[in-house]
Amino acid sequence: FEVLVALTIFGAAMTAVTRQLIESVTITLKTSRMLEYARNGRNLVERLNQDVRCAQAISVFNAFTATPTAAAAGTDGNYLLLQQLTPAGTVSKTIGYYAVAIGSTGTHRLHRFEVDGSTAPAASLSGTHPTVVSTLRLPEGRGFFENCAGLGISIRGQYGTTPGARTNLNYIQCTLITRS
Question: Would you say the C-alpha torsion 123, 128, 133, 135 has a positive or negative sign?
Answer without folding.
Answer: positive
